[in-house]
Amino acid sequence: MLFVGMMDVVTDLANWKSRAADLDPAVAAEVWADPSAPASVLRDPPAAVVEFLLGDGAWQGSLSAVLRNPALPMNVLAMLAARAKGQARSAISRHALRSGADVPRLTAAAPAITAAELGRVVDGLRYGWEYRRDPGAAQATMAKMLRALTTSSDLRCRALAAEAFPLIVGPRHRYTKGEVSATKLIADPEVAVLVALARNRHMRVLPESQEGLAVRRALLDHSAPRVRAAARRAGIHVLDSHIFAALSAADGRPVPVDAAASGVELADPLDDPAPSVRVTAIAGGIPEQDGARWARVLADPSPQVRKAAATRGFSTPSFVWAGLAEDPDPAVRAAVAQSRWAPAELQRRLLSDTDPKVATAAEARDPLSRPVGVRPGVPADGEIMLPVSFTHDQQLRRLDLTAVTLNLTQQHRLAIAARADAEARAEARARVIARLRSSRAAGWVADRWERWCDVFAVPAPAHSMIGLERRLAAPFVGAATADDRITGALALFDAVLGLAAAPGFAVPDHRPEHRSDTLHASAEEHNEQEAADLALLTGPWEQVLLPTLVTVDTVYGPRTPAARQLLTTAARLPRTRLDSLLTTRISIDDQRWRSARREAVDAVAGPHDQVYAAHFLFWDAVTVAELAAWQRPTDPLLADALWAASAVVLYGEQMSAATVETLTSPCTAAGLPL
Which end of the chain is less congested by CB atoms within 10 angstroms, N or C? Predict the structure, then answer.
């Protein structure tokens, strides 16, 4: 009988090993989720099973089933925690923290637990839902967790305790209250524990007693650069007394602060011998006006510090950017090329850098190099329409033509006509906006408001531009008390709303592969109220500006076809010629360009004082620049250069020779025929 029993055990063990060695890791992983599996099998999982659990198994639930197995050996849990990333790490951390009273599991899973996750659990045990439900059990669990982590020989456990638990000053930890002693932790010989202590969010509120100041000094003056850098980044050198002094000075009641008396010397981190500590000076913020300290950063022998000026350079002054762009170290130049703060002209200059890594980084940042998912399309006839509207709707085209050629006399007449039925028009406007808000036409109208508010200088409150319905109503805020200029412009805004709500109106689409959407399927659905609203909103425009003799070939004057051909050619420029255009535009002196631009703005108004024509032409150039660059939004200097060339084509004979030369030089360099 004994022999038969031994044979059964051997057979059973062989079956378990056979299942654990299954070629399908998902099937084999089921062994580690079974509480009845032999410990000798569970102790040594195959590499394929471990890889599955930390990969697809984390999403399919296999890892969670394994973690719930009470027979899972701690060495396996520790191995999984050490190698886990992403979803697997998160699952292991949640499992260990939920079973916080299970000390072996908590310490084994410590590599997968972050200080922020542990901190949230500690807060819950100290004064959260767990504490309110059962204070005694919460305190017992917290004391057990704290004792296990602080007394562990594992470095990661002690680092977690140092960073996640509240701090006190004193000779020992308070286990029942869940508080660790900073005085005791500062004596830990491991650098990782001291770095974690410096990062503890409670360090900033440590008492400014002798013991608290001693802890701060020990971290700030530690021999390890990692500890000093972490302490500087956490700002533990800034005391409450310093903050109160700064606030008092701002209030006009300066209070002197004696650094020696406060116990923490405010040494300049730029004087530290370690580059990682000197970087904290930049991360902490050097005022842009402090040229002396920025000069020290630029002359720093460590590339790490100079790179930080680029990667953290929100307030980096222009002379530092210029120096960094010519830095002998390619890594520093690459940081300039990748920085979101660097001037665009410097990043474009780095496109031709001799180091391929720098050039590649600059190209990735350059808006003209970045691919976009959808390229704006041009009308079916292949030629840019002026003004650009991406639609052949005749009423809308007529509205655009009359808006471009609007003069101040017409605007005054529009204001008089608009005030005649102001209250009824306001009610109609509210009804139309309510109908539009759920249609695609609403987004198109809101996009037009962005351009027209700039063209007509209509003040739209920033807070009202949040939410689609608010964006539609934003230009009309304060319309009742507006002057003639604003009221006349808003009459055209009303006409846009009326046309957008008209039966069968097709929503313009920048994407040629999509068909236009319509707000109304047919005229029959357009009831009497909607027809009355349409008449009210478009009435002033039709009464004052229609009929019009302006056509698509005369909207910007008799040379409109030439300007249209120029912009059509510009929309198809290759990348190399766009680079030449932008490089030339950047090299022109700003004061010289602004002076020439002012002269061009006056000229584009034409003989009939069409004061808004230059602004409409600029927005046309913006659209063409987006077409050429495959990017929306794109570099405004590109649009500015195209606008300048178009203005010269239209009214160059009314400008001085110097102005014409200045405004056309970017497009001439790109080979555009003028």
Answer: N
